[in-house]
Amino acid sequence: MTRYIFILLSFCAALTGCANAPASERRPIAWDGLGRDPNRTAVTKHRNADRAPAENDTNPNQERERVLGTLRPYSEAWWAVQDEIEAENDRQLGSKLVICPRCVPPAPQEDVTGSIR
Q1: 95-101 — which CB contacts under 8 Å span 24+ positions?
Q2: Distance of CA 83 to the CA centre of its chain
Q3: CA torsion 23→27→30→35, rounded to 10°?
């Protein structure tokens, strides 16, 4: 019985060491919107009222969306502007999104279709 308790305590001690390991670098992480934002410090308050109105002018899609409203829906020009808007949105999301490299399995050397297990 003592042997099992010793093994259990050793296992718990090993897990505690892994759980308390500090992060090697401080980078923003993805947040699903539930609970407290892990990227926000306790002192910083994030309010829309505090933002300068000039920030809204820096949106590169604002002009594209205005042009999109003047074009005939689903025409070739409309699709070209729509693709530009989506590409800019993807670029902005890609610059903000950080995925932990340990969370994603490494890419296979060959282009293979199948299970990752």
Answers
A1: 96/28, 97/30, 98/27, 98/28, 98/29, 98/30, 99/30, 100/29
A2: 22
A3: 70
Between CA 4 and CA 1 the distance in angstroms is 5
- Residue 82, C-beta contacts closer than 8 angstroms, at least 6 positions apart: 68
Query: For the residues 12-34, what does the mean pLDDT come to?
Result: 67
CB 60 within 8 A of CB 80: no
Phi and psi, residue 58, nearest 5°: -85, 0
Encode pLDDT of 51-83 as tens digits: 555 555 578 899 999 999 999 999 999 999 999
What backbone phi and psi angles, to 5 degrees, belong to 37? -70, 120
pTM of the model: 0.41
Q: DSSP readout, 24-70?
A: SS-------SSSS-TTS-SS----STTS-THHHHT-THHHHHHHHHH
